[in-house]
TrEMBL record:
It holds the Pfam family Methyltransf_25. It comes from the Eukaryota. SUPFAM superfamilies: S-adenosyl-L-methionine-dependent methyltransferases (SSF53335). It comes from Mucor circinelloides f. circinelloides (strain 1006PhL) (Mucormycosis agent). This is Methyltransferase domain-containing protein. Residues 124-215 form the Methyltransferase domain. One of its GO terms (molecular function) is methyltransferase activity. Residues 14-72 are annotated as: Disordered. Residues 43-63 have a biased composition (Low complexity). Residues 19-28 have a biased composition (Polar residues). Transmembrane segments: none annotated.
Length: 347
């Protein structure tokens, strides 16, 4: 698989250089009492169904290592984090795969005009980095730059990583453990199932604080409510997603609000790009995106079933998703992908 061979290359490139980033994060983390991943901790992102009780909480003593187990799936255990997807191996594999599909469909890893800066060497934050496929790939592509990933859960590789990549555990909606004006470029993708309305406001305030004046921020999200050429079956799925998000005080159309939210947070020079992504039709990208879509919606079933109780039955839900796939193929449905970048004012 591309991902694994790419990772293998990364691993073999690792050297013993120490990075400024490491001491920067350690200092900030120590000061703020936050868990810092320095590569010496034991990685706990292991499969859970086999060795965990079906429903329980395990506290491994530090933030990001506290998990809840429900029906054989592992979730974060932080009551301040609104994220609804699991954080076990199955979900990490899905997110890795999703990265490659998005890169293939969008033909790029980013939209902001930062290529020259990345080449020269800048400091980058990947906010809500997850298993860090973007962070790793960018680290490998731009060895003169330094990449920091932050996530609420310890889902990123802790022990083996390129020398120019560092991770920290933290809730981006509370406090981002870096000094003011640290980063030249902040990237955040696919947090729509993780942040309430208040969380978005707090996170953007924090991202503004840690971005250098003149630095770029980029946010990217899909619109999961209104798809192009959407038939009645998919409409039920998408509007249930909206109802589920609204029931948790999460924005149900955050992709379409990215630009407004950035402006409200004080950023300037916004630029928005919308790309329709094919869902289960026309070519390989369409088929691959549908595989990921179906997988993602399967993983979010427990909270979707709180809105549509018949989906508590996994087989009923699986049949419903299969019907969605047939309908998307027939109607040539597209998911609209929004990427918005902006700058922190220089004064
Ligand atoms: C769908 S994954 C996306 C990962 C990555 N950005 C990507 O595009 O591949 C969302 C990630 O956001 C993280 N997350 C959710 N809420 C968070 C929060 N409040 N603070 C930090 N990370 C959060 C989750 O733990 C998860 O790893």
């Amino acid at each position: 698989m591309v991902f694994f061979s790419s990772l293998k290359n990364l691993f073999s490139r690792r050297d013993k250089r120490t990075s400024n980033a490491s001491s920067l994060q350690q200092a900030a983390s120590k000061k703020k009492g936050l868990a810092y991943s320095n590569g010496n901790q034991h990685s706990s992102n292991k499969s859970t169904a086999a060795n965990s009780p079906a429903n329980s909480t395990t506290n491994n003593s530090s933030n990001g290592h506290s998990f809840q187990y429900k029906d054989g799936r592992r979730y974060h255990g932080d009551s301040d984090v609104a994220y609804v997807l699991p954080n076990d191996d199955d979900e990490a594999d899905r997110v890795h795969q999703q990265h490659w599909i998005l890169r293939y469909a969008l033909q790029s890893n980013y939209q902001a005009p930062v290529t020259d800066q990345l080449e020269k060497g800048i400091t980058v934050l990947d906010s809500g980095c997850g298993p860090a496929t973007w962070t790793f790939e960018m680290g490998e592509a731009w060895p003169n730059s330094t990449f920091h990933g932050i996530d609420a859960s310890c889902v990123f590789p802790e022990n083996i990583k390129p020398a120019n990549v560092e991770f920290v555990i933290g809730n981006i909606a509370k406090e981002i453990p870096y000094p003011d004006n640290t980063f030249d470029y902040v990237h955040q993708r696919l947090l729509l199932l993780g942040l309430t309305n208040d969380d978005w406001e707090n996170a953007l305030k924090e991202l503004y604080r840690v971005l250098k004046p003149g630095g770029y921020i980029e946010l990217a999200e899909p619109d999961l409510q209104d798809l192009e050429n959407m038939g009645p079956i998919l409409r039920k799925l998408q509007y249930t997603m909206s109802d589920m998000l609204k029931s948790r005080n999460m924005p149900n159309k955050v992709a379409c609000e990215l630009e407004d939210r950035l402006i409200r947070a004080g950023f300037v020079n916004t630029k928005l790009k919308m790309t329709p992504l094919k869902l289960n039709h026309t070519d390989k990208a369409g088929k691959l995106l549908w595989d990921d879509y179906k997988h993602g919606y399967s993983n979010v079933r427990p909270v979707m079933a709180q809105i549509v109780p018949e989906w508590q039955d996994a087989e009923v839900y699986a049949r419903f998703l299969a019907d969605c796939g047939v309908e998307a193929e027939k109607n040539k449905t597209n998911v609209n992908w929004y990427a918005c970048y902006a700058q922190k004012p220089t004064q």
